[in-house]
Structure of VCBS repeat protein:
Amino acid sequence: MYPIRALVVFCLLASPVLAAEPTAAQKLGRMLADPDKDACISLTTESELWRDATAADYTSSGWVAWRKYTRSETPWQAKGDFDGDGLQDVAKVIVDKAGKRWMMGVMFGHADGAPCHRYQISGKDLATMPIAGVLTLPKGKDSLTCHHMGEQGPVTCKLGAEGGPRNTDTLLTFDDLPSYSAAYQWVPNTDPTRDSRGQFDRKGLTLENDFAGMAAHSQADAKASHAGDGVNPTERAALVQEFEQAWMALEKTRNYRVITRSEMRGGQVDGNVTRTVVEYVDATHSRTTIESSGTKVVFLRSGSKFWNSTDGTTWTALPDDDGSAAMPMVSPIGDAAIKTVRADTRAGRAVKVMELSGQGDATLVLDVARQRPLQRIDTLPMGAVTTVTQTDYEYDISVQITPPTAP
């Protein structure tokens, strides 16, 4: 199967909280070289009103996925040498004891008897914003796995190249979705007339899907037994192999059609929203039509050449596909539990039906004779909105795709 290539799904969404007005940033992000003992034990001078964040503040499913993919167990704390003095610093999140606000910053390492220093990056008027998490990007690296996509796979954080090589660790921060993200790098003070040690500057950061990592995680999850399985581990292993091979076989299928209809139900002022994607594939070409809310766009592929059109007749050439954006096969089962598997018939053909449960419910239908997918239905509730996506696969068709004529 030749899916439409996703170039960059996530991009930098700067947090309005962490990007305050310049005057406020100077005020809130000040260096506190206060000899007061609180500078050694707290991120704020109001230590009696605040406490360190703990695991109890990071219990959402988004943070559960974050721990899984980043391999960090402490979104409320990250360690590194952020100011480049060779001592270990601690980035941390604190929460007010009333449970309504949070702050984030760095407490710098210090030698015995030396003064303590801290830097408060975010402000304390954060009652309406989701709590932040912190992660260290080590010096010498410009990217790392930092988040997740829909709790189903890893996301890579990439730091912009501006500013040249880094000789310090960089602090990354974001919420659990992520709906905002930011990178902070220490800039030392070189002005002898100023008494501050320096400041944290925000740097460009992009978030990109790690498709290969997503596929690897998905396939590894599918092979592990899960709570709620209605089959034993041996049966699960055989079923995962059978269904994954059927979905992978699409890559070798010469002629087929895929129709996907996605409908959002509930939570819409003006009714439901439906999106339809129809893809035809022959031996060397594919033609994909996407319709949503009265608009339509058509994509056509021939080898490495791509075009798009809004009317299906006038085509615009797109950049050639070098194959680097191809998305590896993600397991159709992933980390869902296999509830039931049953034999059935569809239009006189023998099929095998698998019911899955996880973040939502899914039904996979396998054409037994062809060993190809026949249908997939996903039901995903998110608050007041439920999205139902049905994909139908058809093979008894004649596909003829003609690429645009070169001008």
The domain at 213-394 is CATH 2.50.20 (outer membrane lipoprotein receptor (LolB), chain A). Helices lie at 22-28, 38-41, 61-70, 211-222, 233-248. The chain has two domains: 22-209, 213-394. The first helix runs from residue 22 to 28.
